[in-house]
Design a protein that fits this description.
The chain contains 23 helices and 27 strands. The strands form six sheets. The protein has a six-stranded mixed beta sheet with strand order 4-3-5-7-6-11. The protein has a six-stranded parallel beta sheet with strand order 12-17-16-15-14-13, with helices on one face. It binds zinc ion.
């Protein structure tokens, strides 16, 4: 690895604010609230340089009230004053500023006389394209200047999160620095779902603000430093000509494992990684496709454990102390379990990390002969997750390390991730960190900032060259310190967590002490939880969806009890009192209060949801959801939370389809339906839709969960050994009393997974295929069907629904309602 990559980001600049003076090596850009300099951009600036100029101008005005003019370089010579040159101006070349040795996104900050140069590696992509091979070095130079020379901070997306210290005079001391970013790639994946936002514009604004916030924190994904399953097309290309590239299975064949996911699908085949012909093929492929922008080699296995049982691969393995069968019996046990068609037979091979490490090194050796700077990207994954015991690697090998931490951050889990990291670091490899823990916690006030920051520092000191956090769930008001520390550490790697937290708390002015007390309280609450607390609560609550991670909101009250929430709220009220009289501090405390209220209302819905599921009475639940959604709509423009993320997660259990129909009179159909499997698709021929058909021998079923989750589905699974996919029929009846005024009748389905046909009194009224109108999410969406023409009054109407489901859950899984209203005149 280029030595510059691992070089630390050195803080050498000194902020000088010497009012009104011009001194050796420095000059004023604003003097007594008046512009004393102009911003100069090249005559043909790339997108990010224009953006850099606008940002610099905006923050200088916010700080001082002065507007610095932005001029093109050819116009600049006509005015005589101090200049701030941005990007590749001719003046930078004349001044001898060298940029050709800059690393990715690197930049120079240097002043010569009364000229300041901010220039970086820029590419001509739109500046918003931070997850493309875009480089925005000049823009980052401006952010660096704003951060370190002017003390600007970006606590969360949007204007309220911007901290801009006031200064009527802004002077610059002698600056001369070439900056190499501490990470060659850093990404905070933004999670977005359109549903859950009441106003599309609010969502668009949130996305834009978040994107800008991430840029201001130097997030810049380098897609050339990533891991991908590299051999998914190899069987198609080489299965016949070069079977030796592929794993030798215990039965002596070379093919994709028929007992694994995909039942022999070639995209899951693993490779014979000790085969020199395979290495040469990888090199040939790379030579044919490598570019200046994408110079690296990806050698990660497909999404599968290593499986090759050939003698050469097995001879590369190093006896693994934790394997609980004798080392020389590995093949024998593998053959035995493979013959039993056991998917997990490959655990008998033990840990294969030394085998994979050797493979990565062999490929690197060959590639280096062609490009000495090449990086080889490999996974630590599946049965090669644990660090190799003997093989030495090289810092041009980048290992993708996912780690295992999810909330709660117990010391055991943290230690395990540290050990794993240290083990790989000790081989000499570089590593990229790609954890999933930021997806956890829903909108609850979980505090992990300190533990995160310490772990980040630990990894950074041990060869971390990249990050990829999955995901930015955008809970800025309840999890703000976590998000700020995470963002800030992407470049300010030498700052301590306490320094960074102090920047955050300092923004609350007179409420600082109370805000510290508030988040320290959540830290204590968060640290007290254990996996045991959450797991046993999930069991006790019979949460079918589990509780960790994606469904955290369903068991969050194991930790965030009403009493715990009330205590937190009381501390925040103290902060609000302390902030009185300070407009900005009050607004920021209010920002925190909105997040807490959002969390409280979320907990209230889950409480009501439990009552609804236990009693069948939905009214309290429906009121709680409506209250929550109305509240979210009232604060969604304030960037307190990513409402789409919350809605998406909650939709996996909470039914909101009633909201769509809540302002028209409606009745829910009898929740007890009749049901029959139709594995041979004979229901239509036998007229199971007919009103005369006798369904009295059919099963009973509800429509609040998919059929797999119903007793009838569990029974099927028990009898057949697998869950049912295919056709299934539902029947129900309802009576409509005759009325004096003409009415319109609509059946409203909460959701049907996946396709369905619907009959009323034997007449087909809807044929809804899947995906419906190309919407792959249509299985989860509510829909309506007008049955006015088919309804009979004062006698039973027979409703029949044939559902076709081809994967995952299936059936009518949200309640069905009959809506009625006056016919439009
Ligand atoms: Zn092999």
């Amino acid at each position: 690895m280029e030595n510059s990559v691992s070089r630390l980001y050195i803080w050498t600049l000194i902020v000088m604010l010497l009012a009104g003076s011009v001194y050796a090596g420095g000059f004023d850009i604003v003097r007594d609230g008046k512009a004393a300099a102009a911003i100069v951009i090249p005559d043909k600036p790339v997108d990010c340089v224009q953006r850099a100029a606008a940002e610099l101008q905006y923050y200088i005005k916010e700080a001082s009230g002065a507007t610095l003019e932005i001029v093109s370089e050819s116009d600049a010579n006509q005015i005589s004053r101090n200049y701030i040159y941005l990007g590749a101006c001719k003046a930078a070349v004349s001044a001898g500023i060298v940029t050709d040795k800059l690393t990715r996104n690197g930049f120079v900050i240097k002043n010569i006389g009364s000229n300041l140069f901010l220039i970086g590696r820029d590419t001509a992509y739109p500046w918003t394209a931070y997850d493309m091979p875009a480089e925005t070095g000049t823009l980052l130079a401006v952010y660096n200047f704003l951060d370190r020379q002017m003390g600007v901070r970006w606590l969360w997306p949007g204007k309220l999160g911007e901290v801009v210290p006031k200064a009527s005079t802004i002077s610059i001391s002698k600056l001369d620095e070439t900056v190499t970013l501490p990470l060659i790639s850093s990404r905070f994946y933004a999670y977005h779902w359109d549903a859950g936002w009441s106003n599309k514009q609010a969502h668009e604004q949130f996305k834009t603000d978040e994107n800008i916030w991430e840029q201001r924190h130097y997030f810049s994904w380098n897609p050339n430093v990533s891991a991908k399953h590299s051999f998914e097309k190899y069987w198609e290309r080489f299965g016949i000509a070069h079977p030796e590239y592929f794993n030798l299975l215990p039965d002596g064949t070379r093919r994709s494992d028929p007992h694994y996911v995909g039942n022999g699908n070639p995209m899951y085949i693993s490779m014979c990684v000790s085969d020199p012909n395979l290495w040469n093929q990888i090199i040939e492929d790379w030579k044919a496709t490598r570019t200046k922008e994408n110079p690296n080699i990806y050698v990660s296995e497909n999404d599968t454990p290593g499986r090759c049982c050939c003698p050469r691969c097995m001879s590369w393995d190093v006896p693994y102390p934790e394997l609980n069968i004798p080392w020389d019996k590995r093949l024998e046990y593998s053959k035995r379990d493979f013959a039993k068609k056991t998917d997990g037979w490959s655990v008998n091979l033990g840990n294969l990390s030394d085998r994979y490490a050797r493979f990565y090194m062999e490929v690197l050796k060959l590639a280096r002969q062609i490009d000495p700077n090449v990086l080889v990207m490999g996974y630590a994954y599946s049965n090669y997750t644990n660090p190799p015991l003997q093989t030495k690697l090289d810092d041009h090998i980048v290992i993708y390390n996912v780690g295992g931490i999810m909330y709660p951050w117990t010391s055991e889990k943290v230690q395990k991730d540290k050990d794993m990291w240290t083990g790989w670091a000790n081989t000499g490899a570089s590593q990229s960190w790609r954890p999933n823990f930021m997806l956890d916690g829903h909108n609850m006030p979980i505090f992990i900032a300190r533990k995160f920051g310490n772990l980040f520092s630990y990894f950074h000191k041990r060869g971390m060259v990249g990050t990829y956090f999955d995901s930015d769930t955008g809970q800025y008001s309840t999890q703000g310190p976590n998000l700020y520390v995470l963002a800030r550490m992407q470049y300010a790697v030498d700052k301590s967590v306490d320094e960074i937290l102090d920047e955050y708390y300092g923004a609350f002015g007179p409420a600082k002490a109370a805000v510290i007390e508030y988040f320290s309280y959540w830290e204590k609450v968060s640290d007290a939880a254990t996996d045991q607390t959450l797991d046993s609560y999930a069991v006790q609550q019979k949460t079918p969806e589990g509780g960790h991670y994606g469904h955290f909101y369903m068991i969050a009250d194991a930790i965030f009890t009403p009493e715990v929430m009330a205590n937190g709220h009381a501390i925040l009220n103290k902060a609000a009192d302390a902030a009185k009289g300070d407009k900005t501090a009050s607004a920021r405390v209010d920002f925190l209060l909105k997040g807490l209220k959002n969390a409280e209302l979320t907990l209230a819905v889950q409480e009501a949801y439990r009552v609804y599921k236990a009693s069948g009475n939905a009214s309290a639940y429906q009121i709680a959801v409506k209250t929550l959604d109305d509240y979210r709509a009232s604060v969604e423009a304030d960037n307190i939370a990513n409402m789409g993320f919350l809605y998406g997660r909650e939709s996996e259990s909470w039914d909101r389809s009633f909201l769509k129909f809540s302002n028209v009179p409606n009745v829910e159909l009898d929740p007890k339906w009749k049901f029959m499997w139709d594995p041979n698709d004979e229901g239509i021929n036998k007229e199971w839709f007919s009103e005369k058909y006798d369904d009295s021998k059919w099963f009973d079923i509800g429509v609040d969960f998919c059929w797999e989750e119903q007793p009838v589905g569990r029974q099927w699974e028990k009898q057949h050994g697998s869950q049912y996919d295919g056709f299934g029929w539902y029947r129900n009846q309802f009576i409509v009393p005759s009325a004096n005024t003409p009415q319109q009748f609509i059946l409203a389905f909460g959701a049907v997974d996946e396709a369905c046909k619907i009959w009323i009194n034997g007449q087909l009224v809807l044929d809804r295929p899947y995906p419906y109108k190309d919407d792959r999410d249509s299985w989860s969406k509510p829909f309506e069907v007008d049955i006015t023409k088919f309804v009979r009054f004062d006698q039973p109407n027979v409703l029949a629904v044939r559902v076709e489901d081809n994967s995952g859950g299936g059936g009518i899984w949200r309640p069905v309602k009959l809506l009625f209203s006056k016919t439009k005149e």
